[in-house]
Amino acid sequence: MEKRAAILAAAKALFIRNAFAGTSMDAIAAEAKVSKLTVYSHFGDKDNLFREVIRSRIEDLLPEDIYQFDPHVGIEQTLHAIAQAHMHIDCQAEHVGTFRAILSDCRQGNPRYGKLLWEEGPARMHRLMENLLQQAVDHGALDIPVVKTASVQFFSLIKGDMLLRRLFGCDECPETAAAEIEAMARTGVNTFLRAYVPR
């Protein structure tokens, strides 16, 4: 387990630093201070290793329990907690670096990195969100005609342009980030609820 953890940590650092295409299994093994055979025996290939790195990181940052519907908790409170968690992730320099690495790989004609991240990140997130929204609809807390569409709308409302500004290097670490995160999360949730709270 210690070797596995060391490999994951090494792979995470190298994928962020060198992107997917620029990271070799040899380099990961050297960084983790294990043999390349050990890396392959734990993860099979680079795609599976990358998937495990992303899955592990996202489960740490966005555990599934934040998407659980509790009929005894107001839906506004649940949605606000989700909004806050997502906004904080988008504003961390490490994650901005990861997104830049994805764009670099895609520009070089290697979309696998982005596709793997999409499957373990946004696709997983939308499945969990759709399940939460459907439960809220079933309990009468929300009135949503198309849950899949509403999930996309929710994340669009809460994210704004903060991540894009960081990707373009406009404001890497603004002093007002905490207040902006709170305001964007709150107003995004309020706008979503105005559309879908039962009349």
UniProtKB/TrEMBL annotation:
PROSITE patterns in the cross-refs: HTH_TETR_2
Record bears the keyword DNA-binding: yes
DNA-binding region: 24-43
Top-level taxon: Bacteria
GO molecular function: DNA-binding transcription factor activity; transcription cis-regulatory region binding
Family matches, as Pfam families: TetR_C_7, TetR_N
UniProt-listed InterPro entries: Homeodomain-like_sf (IPR009057), HTH-type_TetR-like_transc_reg (IPR050109), HTH_TetR (IPR001647), Tet_transcr_reg_TetR-rel_C_sf (IPR036271), TetR_C_Proteobacteria (IPR039536)
Domain HTH tetR-type residues, every copy: 1-61
Signal peptide: 1-21
UniProt keywords, alphabetically: DNA-binding, Signal, Transcription, Transcription regulation
PANTHER family (UniProt xref): HTH-TYPE TRANSCRIPTIONAL DUAL REGULATOR CECR, HTH-TYPE TRANSCRIPTIONAL REGULATOR RUTR
Protein name, UniProt field: Transcriptional regulator
Species in which this protein is naturally found: Rhodanobacter fulvus Jip2
